[in-house]
């Protein structure tokens, strides 16, 4: 077999593979969610996928890229490039990470905002941590969470959350299902807190998790 024949054979095989992948997907957005948390956030978003019966071929969720915000972005960028090179790009890419004590938090946001193609990449941040989003299922608060000598700002949120979820711990499963009855309350609280944080010029506390959850709730109407 000549090199030209081999090239065409490989090209046909790749095209057939892409066609099979497309056939498995539903006719709505293909999205990538990259989380800094290896279990807590990935468990949560996998539960969202299950609850709303989202086709798993349309959603890739990863939490194995490290906790550093820039590592989250770089991993997401590489996955986008890989799929784009295959001719099957993601329609949306979500980078989920906390402010907490990360020194390059703002650098990661700047990189995501500048990433091409435009309107594909989204920074889904929480200050100080993902647990603030969970806390908003119970109460509305914009009291800043600050670090002390013995606790981080994230620990302070965790302490407050445990007043309402005594059994909560990192990597806990079924969080979404446990809290779903309060989801609309939490979404409204999160949007209100985010607007207030913008007005006062301080993101402590705030979260954008509700924006991703809301997109996933309505993903079936996001036709391509």
Low-confidence segments: 3-19
| Beta-strand residue percentage | 5-15%
The mean pLDDT is 90
Q: Given the helix and strand composition, which structural class is it?
A: alpha/beta
Provide a count of the helices: 9
Termini Cα gap:
39 Å
Order of helical and strand elements? HEHEHEHEHHHHEH
Overall shape: globular
Provide the helix percentage. 40-55%
Overall tally of domains? 1
Q: How much is the radius of gyration in Å?
A: 19 Å
Q: How many E-type strands?
A: 5
Mind explaining what this structure looks like?
- With 224 residues, the protein is of the alpha/beta class.
- The protein has one domain.
- Helix content is 48%, strand content 11%.
- It is built from nine helices and five strands.
- It has helices at residues 3-24, 40-51, 69-85, 105-114, 130-135, 153-161, 175-179, 183-200, 209-217, and strands at residues 31-35, 59-62, 92-98, 121-127, 206-207.
- Strands 2-1-3-4-5 form a five-stranded mixed sheet, sandwiched between helices.
- Strand 3, helix 4 and strand 4 form a beta-alpha-beta unit.
- The longest helix has 22 residues, at 3-24.
- The radius of gyration is 19 Å and the shape is globular.
């Amino acid at each position: 077999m000549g090199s030209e024949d081999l090239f065409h054979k490989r090209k046909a095989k790749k095209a057939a593979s892409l066609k099979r992948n497309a056939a498995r997907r539903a006719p709505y957005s293909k999205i990538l969610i990259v989380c800094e948390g290896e279990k807590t956030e990935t468990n949560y978003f996998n539960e969202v996928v299950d609850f709303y019966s989202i086709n798993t071929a349309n959603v890739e969720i990863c939490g194995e890229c490290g906790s550093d915000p820039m590592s989250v972005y770089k991993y997401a960028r590489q996955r986008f490039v890989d799929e784009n090179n295959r001719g099957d790009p993601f329609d949306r890419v979500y980078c989920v990470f906390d402010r907490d004590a990360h020194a390059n938090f703002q650098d990661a946001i700047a990189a995501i905002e500048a990433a091409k193609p435009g309107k594909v990449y989204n920074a889904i941040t929480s200050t100080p941590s993902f647990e603030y989003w969970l806390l908003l299922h119970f109460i509305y608060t914009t009291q800043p969470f600050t670090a002390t000598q013995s606790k981080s700002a994230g620990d302070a949120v965790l302490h407050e959350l445990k007043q309402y979820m005594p059994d909560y711990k990192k990597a806990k499963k079924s969080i979404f299902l446990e809290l779903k009855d309060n989801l609309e309350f939490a979404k409204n609280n999160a949007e209100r807190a985010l607007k207030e944080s913008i007005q006062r010029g301080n993101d402590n506390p705030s979260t954008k998790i509700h924006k991703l959850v809301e997109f996933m709730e309505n993903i079936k109407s996001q036709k391509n």
